[in-house]
Amino acid sequence: MKKLYILFILIMLCGCSNSSYKSITKDKALKLINEKQAILIDVRSDLEYQSNHIDGSISFPIDTINNIEKEYDKNSYLIVYCQSGSRSKKASNILIELGYKHVYDLGSINNWD
Question: Active-site residue numbers?
Fold first, then answer.
């Protein structure tokens, strides 16, 4: 019985490993953008985006992130960033909850420098 319990726990842990976002560096993000046509998403406000953003990124403020389902399918590669990393983490978790399979958190826009 104890062995079955351990086996069950291991199976559950393996199954959960794909249901979370991953942190990503600029170099790896660029590789994903080039190889998988990953989408770079700025989850800051429209005003923040207009004042400064990463070239090629798309503005999708955190308060509208649920609407992303209208634009991109669940197999899209999504790379999320914000000002400090707080909103990108929250947005990444929301995207995972929505069923997106390939979510990456760049964190702060300053990580692009």
Answer: 82
